[in-house]
Structure formats: C-alpha cells, structure tokens
Amino acid sequence: MTRQSIQETAARVRRGDDTARRLAEHAIRRHEASDLGAYIVFDAQGALAQAAAVDATVARGEDPGPLAGITVSVKDLYGVEGLPIRAGTRRELPARWQREGFLVRAIRQLGAVIVGKTHTVELAFGGVGLNPNTGTPVNPWDAAQHRVPGGSSAGAGVSLWEGSAMIALGSDTGGSVRIPASATGVVGHRHTTGRWPTTGVVPLSETLDTVGLLTHTVEDSRYAFRAIDPLAADTGSDGARAQGPASSTAMPGAPEPAPAAGTRSVAGLRIGIPRSDLWAGATPAIAAVVRDALGELEAAGAHVVEVDAPELDEAGERYLAGELVQPERFESLERDLPGWTPILDPTVGKRLESARDVSAVDYVAVLRLRLRLSATLHARLDAERVDLLAAPTLPITPPPLSALAKLDVYRATNRDMLSGTGPASMLNMCAVSLPAGLDEHGMPVGLQLIGRSGTDHALLVRAVAAESVLGTNVARLGVPPRVAR
Fold this sequence. Notes:
single chain, alpha/beta, 11-stranded mixed sheet, about 15% strand
C-alpha cells in the first residue's frame, strides 16, 4: 500500500490537478466498506459540501489553503457545527457544546474537509479505548478478536487505517493521542501544554489538556503542525506556548527558534534512555522492539545514552494517583453538566469517586510539585546535553476487549496503558509516538520521543529524521489484516 503525503495531496488540489470531491468520495467509499466502527457519526453529505466549497475556491483562482481537500476525522469531544456531540456519554450534550473552537476552526480555515466524529472514551477519562455507551472501535491489527484501540481518542487511529481520514483530531491529557497512535501503528504528537488553545473541546483537566493530531507519518504531522501553529499565535495564546521551565532550547513564553526544516539525519542526535519505570514497566518483548529501533538510529549516527531521570517516575506516580485529573474532571462535570455523574458508566463513575477524597492542600501541592519536577528534569537534560528522551509509548500490548469485563481488571489495564505517557504530560513536555515494530502478538509497538517544553517544531524535525531511518508505518509494520488493500 502506497500513500501520497498530505503535503503532496493538498498541493495537487491547490493546483487543480486533483479535486477535494474525489478525495471526499474516496473517504466515503472506504468508510462504507469498513466494519472497524471508528465513528459515532459519519457525515458524508457534509463532507461533499465542504469539498465542493474547496473546489469552487480553486476554480476562482484562489488558494483554499495548505490542507486543501485533506479529510479529517474529529474526536467526539470537539464541537463541530451541525453535528451532535456526546463526548462518549449516554446522551447528547446541550447544543452549546457544538460551538467550534480553535483547532476545528483552524483546519477549516486551512482548507480541510471534516468527515465525521470518532468515538471517545466517556468524557475522555481512560486510556484503554473502551466505551460501553457508544461502542469501542476495533483495533485493525488483530484479525481474530476484538482488541482495544487505545484511548481516549479511541476512533482516531482506526479512522486513519480505514482510509476515511488523512488527519485525525484527538486530545491528549495523559496520553490520549499517543496511546491510540501506538496501539494502532500510526503517529501521534502531544504538543507542549498550553501551546494551542483547547477551546471548543469538552475538558478533562484544564491543567493538562492539549489538542492534537494523529497521522500516518511524522512528515504528515510536521507539515500539518507547521500549517496550524501560526494560527495559535493569532488567538493571543502565544504567552503560553512554552509553558514550563526554562531550557537551553526555549524559555517559558518565548517563541521557539525555527528549526532547520530540511534536516533528515539523526547523526549527532543525543537520545537519552531514562533509567525509569518507563522501561522497567514494559514487557520484555515491547522493550526489545523499542531497543532494536534505537539501535537502528544509533547505527545511523545517533548517540544513545542512559540517563538518570527520577522525576519521570515521581511525575508518573502522581499522575496515576489521581490528585490532579480526578478533581478537575469532577469539578468541571458538576459545573458544566450537573446531574450527569449518576449516569456515567462504572469504568468512569467508579474511578471518579476518589475525587472527593483529594483535599485542597493535596491538590495545590501536586500542582507545585509538577513544576518543580519539570524544572529539575529540564536542568538535568541540559547538563547531560540530551536532545530527546526515548521510551516505549505503551508498556503492554492492547488487550482483547473480552478480557476487560471485570472492573478491577479494567482499572489495572488502564493504569498500565497510561503509565508510559502520563509522566511527559505532568512535566509539560512535548512528545511524539511513532511505530517501532510489532510485538509477539503482531500488535504495533510505539517509540515515544520526548522533547523539552516548548520545542515542538524541533521535536518533529528530529522525529522525521528518525522516521527516515526506521521507515513509515506501512514500510515498517505492513498493513493491518483487517484493512482492505
């Protein structure tokens, strides 16, 4: 299976060598032929209408934008005008939640075509991808049984393999872009906390929430991110673009230095393997796949070194303890959707019960602790001259849905699936997950590259260089058995 890049596809539409209508019709056909269950609502007529508007712009001799005709799926946590929103719950949210925020408006402005809303874990509160209310998408990598797709952006990666979308909009609080990217063998980028506004998205944690993209390749993510990122500055959010501690690469609140966009080599790149639970908690098979990928980068000229990073473990423990996300989720739910708590599925509602046990003192303490840990880790990376940290994205293989029937098993699995990504979120860092290989079950394994706060462009350029060595997802993994060639 060969795939034209997003940049090449949009360029053809902008020149008039292809049409947005043809791309939309292709997406509709792929969706109609799929049984993967990525979407809660697929808007074929709306996609054709948007495509017609793009083509009309080209016909007038105008430029529809750098994402012209690119099909986009949107997590059902985002408001999209004219489309219902449930945020994974049992009932539709009030109409005001359909209002579009920054990222949906940005992709429209750049010429993209929204094809529908993908499934999410209820209120985005979970990393497994399970949703008993609206349905759990099928991970396309197992032909024999229904394995989970990773969450909470559960349908995002699945929509990419289905062929109905070239970009999937997700959100990432503790890993909800990176986890499904790893579980389904695509690329997911969590930007630095605060870099882009989270307007128009049902909140989970106002402290940690980010919006983000999943794509088939890092090059596609880099291209789309570069197109969208200047629009965030226009919203007045630039002061939060590099939240977190100072580093040698970006100071808090300062614009990131422009990276060398043409860089395609890992030669001289210093990649740190943290001595932490990010590695110790991974299964031996998954750790071996990621180490083999790092070995290939090392053979291509990167310097791979072990580094102490105890801050990652402490940050991960505090994230999983629930002293930050649970109270913020509970407060916003009671404020914005009063009376909805009793109707939540037990996989969410039971886990939220602990929110009442977190005192104001504990909540404020964890807010301060995360900033201290982030400052200490950034200083350590500077001292060690480490450009990136590397670890498995997911420490376990995505389990079969049937194995999660008991709540205690679900809880343990959810903790495992969040344990690899929560630390970077807590420390205000940016991170990207890209495919490293397949495990012993034939399921994708993600390599997580973690960058300093505020260095998203540089991270993506370096990840593109890594991808040039490792290969794209199709080249490295092949095509999932449930996907039509």
